[in-house]
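Quick check before the chapter quiz. The format below is the same one you will see on the exam, so make sure you can read both the input and the output lines.
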Amino acid sequence: VQLVESGGGLVQPGGPLRLSCAASGFTFSRYAMGWYRHAPGKERDLVASITSDGGSINYGDSVKGRFTISRDNAKNAVNLQMTSLKPEDTAVYYCSARFGYFRYWGQGTQVSVSS
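Here is the expected output.
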């Protein structure tokens, strides 16, 4: 099982960034997918989640209206489009897959928002 995040980096406040997660080694279309983030000194928080068929999406309160999660079951990929980024969005972002008791995590990608 592999979840490989990409797209992180340094961005100025107010700017956009798009994260991608490439999945392999499991039946992607059966799994709910999510993005989480972990900032220094804080707990890991849910950023956004999407059900296996994409029919239901949930966002953390701090990113509602700014971030958009999407998935492509044909490409085994889930994306996170981030806009209007703020310094407090700085964190390591993790891709996660969940199906029943099974949960997998990627290695994370650093997102830094700073001028």
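If your answer matched, good. The chain is about 0% helix and 55% strand.
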